[in-house]
Every structure is written in C-alpha cells, then in structure tokens.
Amino acid sequence: MRHIINLEVENQAGVMARIVGLFSARGFNIESIVAGKALEDGTARITLVVHGDAWVIEQVNKQLNKLIDVIRVTDVTRNDYINRELVLVKIHCTPPRRTEASLVGNIFGAKVVDISGKSLTFELIGSESKITAFLQTVHPFGVKEIARTGPIAMVRDFNPKAQGASGA
C-alpha cells in the first residue's frame, strides 16, 4: 500500500542524507521526497511517499522516530487528508496550435508560464489523478520536458476517520 508520511525535522545539514540512508540501509524505497521550510524557524517539513505492507510501514515509522533530528512523524494516509502535486510541462506547440493547447490547459486549470515560437510550458497544481490525466491529454502535442514533484499532504482539521463511526 502507498503511504504518505510527513516529517517535521531540524533544518540542519545532513538530515536529508540520514533519512535517505536509513531507507537505503534497510532496502526500503522512497517513491518521492519533497522538502521545504516549516512554520517554526529552524525546522523543515519533509513529505515521503513509501510503498509497503503494514510491517514495512511500522518499521519505517519506528526507524524515523529514532533519528535525533526528527521531531515528528505522521503517516497522513491513516487520516482524512488533502494532497497536491505540482508539474511543469513543456510541449511542442507552434503558433497555429496555441489556441488548441491553451484550451486543453484551461480545462484542467493549468497556467501557461512560458511561451516560445516552438513550445508552450504549463504549470498545473492538483491531485495525482488530475496531473496524470493532463499529461495524457497533452501527450499528442509531443511532450518535450516534464518536472514533477511528489505529493505534499496535510491532515484535515475535521477528520471523520479519527472520530470513528459514531462521529463523536
């Protein structure tokens, strides 16, 4: 099963290397890793996407919690959460096809962020399925380049999964 794990860590040199090393040493794979500054000064937020059964995910959580620089580990897939990805897509697009390509982009809510005589570059933020559908739709234009993040995720404040079946 695919798990999205958020980490709050000390924002220091070597933290990312220790996290990646932990996975590598145990033969676990990281599908994606996204990092950036957190709310509090001196901390960073890292979002990992990891595949594994219950045992693998339990081991990942235990090992991450043992790292000194890790402040908090949250497996957001156990909760109701919001997630988004970002993609930049450069497609082959001569001036006669710009209107058609722009219409496709508008349908998905993509923004044109760069234009040249031979290409068009879109920015799209959304769910994994939305981005995948967009990439399939623009594929016939000819994709020149893709830069795609993995997901970032946040647990919803109102969380029915955490409240149980009674809603209390």
Verbal overview:
- By secondary structure, the chain is α+β, with helices and mostly antiparallel strands.
- The strands form 2 sheets. Strands 5, 6, 7, 8 and 9 form a 5-stranded antiparallel beta sheet that branches. A 4-stranded antiparallel beta sheet has the order 2-3-1-4, with helices on one face.
- It folds into 2 domains: 2-78, ACT domain (Alpha-Beta Plaits); 82-153, ACT-like. Chain A, domain 2 (Alpha-Beta Plaits, 2-Layer Sandwich).
- Helix 3 packs antiparallel against helix 4 (128-138).
- It is elongated.
- The protein has helices spanning 15-26, 54-66, 98-108, 128-138, 160-163, and strands at residues 2-10, 30-37, 43-51, 70-75, 81-92, 111-115, 119-126, 143-148, 152-155.
- The protein contains 5 helices and 9 strands; from the N terminus they run βαββαββαββαββα.
- The two termini are 28 Å apart.
- Write the CATH fold name of the largest domain: Alpha-Beta Plaits
Q: What is the 3D form?
A: elongated
CATH class of the largest domain: Alpha Beta
For the record, what is the CATH homologous superfamily label of the largest domain?
ACT domain
Count of folded domains: 2
In the CATH hierarchy, the architecture of the largest domain is 2-Layer Sandwich
Q: Low-confidence parts, pLDDT < 50 over ≥5 residues? A: none
The count of helical stretches stands at: 5
Give the integer mean of the pLDDT values.
91
Q: What portion of the residues fall into strands of 2 or more residues?
A: 35-45%
Helix content: 25-40%
What is the element string, with H for helices and E for strands? EHEEHEEHEEHEEH
Question: What value does the Rg take, in angstroms?
Answer: 19 Å
Instruction: Characterize the biggest β-sheet.
Output: 5 strands, antiparallel
Work out the number of β strands. 9
Distance between the termini: 28 Å
Structural class: alpha+beta
